[in-house]
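Possible regression after last week's pipeline update?

I re-ran a chain I had predicted before the update to compare outputs. Posting the input and the new output here so someone can diff against the archived version. Not blocking, just want to make sure nothing changed silently.
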Amino acid sequence: MKISVLGCIMGLIFAIIPIVILEVNGAKFLFKTLRAMVKMVAFLGIMGLCLYFVFKWNLAYVNVLCVLLMMVFGSLMIALRSRMGLSRYLLPVFVGVFTATILVGICLVFAIHGIANVLDVHILIPVFAILVWAMVETNAAALRTYCMGLRHHGQLYEYLLGNGATHRQAVQYFMKRAFERVSTPYIKRMAWVVTGFSPILLWCVLLDGKDVWTAIWFQILVLVATFCASVLSLYITLMVANKFSFDKYGVFIDEINKEKETEE
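New output (post-update):
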């Protein structure tokens, strides 16, 4: 499959049509739409340039380094979007992302490609990229739920501790909410696949010329693998983060509010 000049022109037309319709109907999204498109093109352009050389060289150590950089970048995005405090929570997030991605990623590579040439760029980079990017939005939202719960409902945590609960028992409710938050998007995708969510990977695999059953199995495998990686990553992150989130007296360390109070 190759993209021709006609394909590029059609892509430009596809971008212009919704903008015109929005403007005609009074939806003032022109600036936001153009800004989003520029950011998309710039990001994909930079990523495409990097991937061009990675795929051209196809060296094992370069491929592994690229995977590690994706994990670091993904962890940074999760820590920033979760609003938990970058300096204190980046390490726990990275430990969770790294461990879950390696464990699930290796198994997924074996399931898709077998044991031959597992460090080949054409299998290693796409598989690990899918796993890492699947975690960013869901895990950031889950960690934000966990942190906001402790920040705004800390009295429940203190009440449980004061009535004899252990630290693990006191934070269990907030952990439960976080796991519900990370699981909900995947449950919706699995429950409403085809009828509510288009199985994009299935159509892409079919577009590449693979048979129907291979495409279906690939869609299922990737969906459950990203679900597993996100939940496992969140669990490990919370286990590690609990070492940094509370002081020696068991009081939650609210780094964000501390920064605001310092500024004031």
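Follow-up from reviewer: compared with the archived run. Residues 256-264 have pLDDT under 50 and may be disordered. Marking as no regression found.
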